[in-house]
Every structure is written in C-alpha cells, then in structure tokens.
Amino acid sequence: MTSAEIRNSFLDFFKEKQHTTVPSASILPQSPGLLFTNAGMNQFVPYFLGTEKAPYDPPRAADTQKCIRAGGKHNDLEDVGYDTYHHTFFEMLGNWSFGNYFKEEAIAWAWELVVERWGLPANRLYATVYAPSEGDPSEFDHEAYQLWKGFFEKAGLDPKIHIVNGNVEDNFWKMGDTGPCGPCSELHVDMTPNGDTGGKLVNMDSDLCIEIWNLVFIQYNAEEDGTYRDLPSKHVDTGMGFERVCSLIQNTKNFTDFSKKPTNYATDVFQPIFRMLEKLSGKKYVDVYPGEESDALEQAIAFRVIADHIRTLSFSIADSIIPGNTGRNYVLRRILRRAVKYGRTLGFNGNEPFLPRLVDTLVEEFSHVFPEIKTRAAVIKETLTLEEESFNKTLDRGMEKFENSVIENVFPPEDAFQLYDTFGFPLDLTALLCRERGITLDEKAVEARMEEARKLSRASQKKMVVRATEISTDVITEFLGFEKNSCEAIVLEIHGNLVITDKTVFFTEMGGQEGDTGTLNDSTITSTQQIGSAIAHQIEGNIPAVGDTVDLTINRERRSYRSSPHRHPPPPLGYTQSHLTRRFPTGVQRFARSLDL
Ligand code: SER
Questions:
Q1: What distance in angstroms lies between residue 21's CA and the mean position of ligand 1's atoms?
Q2: Residues 215 and 334 in one domain
Q3: Whose Cα sits closest to atom 6 in ligand 1?
C-alpha cells in the first residue's frame, strides 16, 4: 500500500464502524497549556470534559491529525534524524468514542484492522497494559488484559508473552500536566528478521520493536493541584503513528519480508522530499542506520533532519505559527536554524535559501490531505526565505566563534551564551554541535547565564548601556537613509541594548553630530553609533532577537532640524566624500532635495 492508501484504509475502516471522518485540527492548539497540537485528541477536549456535546451521531470520530512534538511534555526533537522513527512533525491516525464505546470495541477493532485486515502476523504483536506502582493513579487494567488475552489465545499465542505490563510513564497517557487522561494500552511490533524476541524489546527504545498504536481509555482529568478527577463519562482516544505504520507496511512489503531494517524515511512519505533535496544539493541519500559505521552517516542524518524539519516548518507556518522570539515561535525558529545548519552538511552554503525550494514537493504530496499547505504556499516560502537569509548572515561567523571557543574538549558556558545572544544560535544548536564533536557543555550553566541576562534586561532595560568601544563586529550595515525614512531590517547582532541590523535608515553619531533617533518597532532608538562598518541602534524598550525582522523609522522632525541650512547633513557611515559620491551619487542629491537645501 502507498501511504495515501494506508491513510484511507484506516479512515475507511472506521467509517464502516460508524465513525464520522473529521478534518485535522490546526497545529496551533486551543488548549492554553500546549505549545503545539501534540495529539489527535486535543481538538476533542471539550467533549471529554463534558463541557460540549460531540456533534456526531453516533458520537464517534476518526481522522488524521497534524501533530508536533518539539518542546513541552512530549518532545522528540533530539532524536530526530539520529533514529529512524521519531519526528517533530507527524500524522496521527485516530478513532474516538465520546462516551460511547469503550475498551471492548477499541481493542477488538484494533486487532481486526491490524491483524485481520492489514495482515500483520499476530506473533509479532505485543500489547502493553497499565500496571501502576504504589502512589500512581488508578489500578491495574484487568479489563484490557482480559480482552487482549482472548485475542492472543485465539491466535494460538501465549498471553503471558504477548501482553507486557507498563508503568505510569508508558501506560498512563496525559496530554500535558493537566487535562483528560487515563490508562492506555499500546501495540508494539517486533520487526526483527525472525520476529522471535518474545517481547524483550518492548519499550526498550529499539528501532526493531516500535509502538505503532496507543489506545487510551480516558476516564480522568488531571487537575492543577495534581489530583485526578473522574470525568462524567468514559471515552476512547487512539493514536496511530502514521509514518511508523507506513514504515512497517512498506519496508516489509506488506509483511512478507522482514529482512530489511525498518525506517520511516524509506517510505513514500519522505522519499519525494529526499529526491528534491538530492536534486538541489547534488548529493545522494544513502540509508545509513544509527550506530552503523559509515562515512555517509553525517550526510544521512542531515537529509533526515531537513526532511523532518521542513514538514514541521511548513505545516506550522500554514497554520499561522511564524518563527519568532518566544514560546512556540521560538521553538520553530530553533527548528529552522537547525535545518539551516544541517543544510551546510549537504553543501547549501548560504548564498541562496534552500528550504523554500522544498515547499512545492510538500504541496504535491500533501495538499490532497491538508489543503492549507497549497493555499498558504506563498506565505510559507516567503517566511522561510526571510528567516533562512537572516540566519545565514550570522551562521558562518557563529561557527567560527564556535570553533575558536573550544578549550580542551570543553565548551565554555559564557561562549555558548554569546553564541545565543550575539549570533542567534539556539542553545540546542550549540549543544548539538558539541555532541557531534564529543565536546562537553554544561547546558545548565548556560541556561543560568541566559536567565541572569533576562533578569538583568528586565530589571534595568533603560539603564543597561554598552558602549560601542566595548564591542567589535564585522557586520556591514547597508545604509538606506538617503532615500527613505523607514525600512525593514534583519537583526544580526545584539550587544546589551545595542542592536545591529543588516540595513538602516539611521545616521550615526559622529564628528560631533548626534545620531538619528526614532523607533525600532515600538521601542525607542535613543542614538545610533558606528562600529566598524556596522550601525548599532541604542534601544530603550523591548529588545528584539537576532533574526527578527524589524521596522526602523527615524524621527523625521529631528533630522530636518539637525540638517537645517545652518548645519551640514551628517556624513553617513564614516564614508569619505569620495566614497559617498561614488556609492550614493543620486541618493545624495535626492536627500539634499528632500531637505530643501
Ligand atoms: N492521545 C494518545 C497519544 O497521543 C492516543 O491518541 O498517544
């Protein structure tokens, strides 16, 4: 089956069982406690809580849900690319009962779909059931155990081997710290060549025995005070990892050949993205598995990370989550910067953004399921272009700083902080670089340093002044002030309250003349200073982040006054008059005219 056929097969199966097929909800979650939609059940929370009635007759639904697990309670970011089955973005196929059927039907239909319809050999299947320790919520799930036992016995298999107890971590599912929850029962598949591991690999983080489906029996609401309140009705919430099931079915050629190691990336979900990446980079993807010794491993990881991250980025932007400074927006920015960094491994040197060039492949492959990827394609490409261009401007210098900072296999926390603060390197990117090279980094110390900086900035935002003489930079800021009073610019470096951008309309303080004043977004620019060929804007108010696109506007009245006939227009950026006339001949004239000189 192709991935499209697998998706449809799941939805059709549950349609036969009177489930209404519903569209995926947005990646932008309704629940205030979530960074991203992280499970199929998120959109149904009001039905579980009983605050709204499910509008389906019977009250059952099925769908494929766009999910992101990066940041927050469920976070798979670090594993992506290094293993073959974790993703930041994935589809979750699910079926739901809202106070309708419960464990009996949920388990029976799971068996029917996977074993009877799709044909997975039952001897490769393992079901886990909830077995709490003292102090954990709820009790041993006898009912689920008995139901699975019936199916395994009927298939001639020993339930003692095929049913595995799971603890509160693995078998009591919670959406977040609060919200609907309950015991769950997961299906794991032994994908070893002989399928004879007897359950030893279940929940052992093995890529040869992975969880494909989680059946959650929602009975409680996790309250803010840490208690579990019984819900008015009992519900079913199941989630099947779409890419994993595609891997299971396609890598084994419909369960006929288990000789090949499974990987989600060998499926038609990811292959079209790889083909496009190969075309753009001129490099070839070779399936190298984690742990295998191969020169191609680094490149394989880069392919996988980029293919994963471009989906996360594109689907998020389609749902109006834009890379930015805080919260989920910063998670997205981190993901983008990781992707850009891995792009260097494939030879994308930063001259031209490559991420936007992958978007059309996603449109081709996914718009029949998620039409928003097509309708929002232009916004996605534009956002990726701006963000990638912005990070490209600091990436090489940041990498140089990284290389120069290592002291005997240890990375100083202060330098990691500077990489974050000045070069826009998310901490996890620096951590990743360190991990790749076996360098030790005390991440806690860096976090503490970041927190200290945040506190300082909050407490004394107005007073904190860094003098230009204290810093150095090799940024060249393009000056547009002859032609415009305002412009959009990208923040390239931040030093305390001094913000250096790629462009500016602000004259600098020099030769006894004061620099322009004005605004950066809604903050005040109190003065501007030249550092080498860069323009630094002294900010009062909110400091942006490296990579932000900001609006710069000069205080026009002030410049007109300053440049009255009694004073000379200030020389821009330390250029001599000959530089000026060479670079800006018409600009100078236009500027003079605009001031009625
Ligand atoms: N909510 C469960 C999960 O995300 C099942 O859908 O695993």
A1: 17
A2: no
A3: 239
Residues 257 and 363 occupy one common structural domain: no
C-beta of 171 in contact with ligand 1 (< 6 A) = no
* Average pLDDT of the residues in 211-218: 98
Measured from the CB, is residue 572 less than 6 Å from ligand 1? no
Query: Rounded CA gap, 264 and 86, in Å?
Result: 9
Determine, yes or no, domain membership for 421. Answer: no
Of the candidates 222, 191, 218, 196, the one whose C-alpha atom is nearest the C-alpha of residue 207 is: 191
Q: Confirm whether pTM is higher than 0.70.
A: yes
Same domain, 430 and 482: no
Q: Which two tokens stand for residue 555?
A: 């205080």
Do 262 and 279 belong together in one domain?
Answer: no
Q: Are residues 328 and 304 in the same domain?
A: yes
- The tokens for 239 are 């989630």
Partners of 210 in the beta sheet?
189
Is 581's pLDDT higher than 50?
no
- Which range is least confidently modeled, 267-271, 369-373, 398-402? 398-402
pLDDT of 416 strictly over 90: yes
Residue 370 to residues 63, 365, 570: CA-CA distances in angstroms? 12, 10, 54
CB-based burial label for 580 (10 Å; 0-12, 13-18, 19+) = middle
Neighbours of 475 (CB within 10 A): 18
> How far is ligand 1, taken at its centre, from the CA of residue 184, in Å?
9
> Is 414 within the bounds of a domain?
no
State whether 394 and 280 are in the same domain: yes
Give me the pLDDT at residue 446, please. Answer: 93
CA of 238 to the centre of ligand 1 (A): 6
Expressed as residue numbers, the domain containing 381 is 271-408
Q: How far apart are CA 159 and CA 171, in angstroms?
A: 18
585 pLDDT band, cuts 50/70/90, is very low
39 lines ligand 1 (CB under 6 A): yes
Read off the pLDDT band of 121 (50, 70, 90): very high
**45 ligand 1 Cβ < 6 A:** no
The number of distinct structural domains making up the chain is 4
64 and 207 housed in the same domain: yes
Task: Output the domain CATH number for residue 582.
Answer: 2.40.30.130
Residue 415 lies in a domain: no
Distance of CA 75 from the midpoint of ligand 1 (Å): 14
476 vs 299: which has the higher pLDDT = 299
Q: Is 237 in the pocket of ligand 1 (CB under 6 A)?
A: yes
Please name which of 59, 50, 60 lies closest in space to residue 13, comparing C-alpha atoms. 60
Mean per-residue pLDDT of the chain: 88
Q: What is the pLDDT of residues 528-574, one digit of tens each?
A: 888 888 889 989 888 888 888 899 999 877 665 454 444 444 444 43
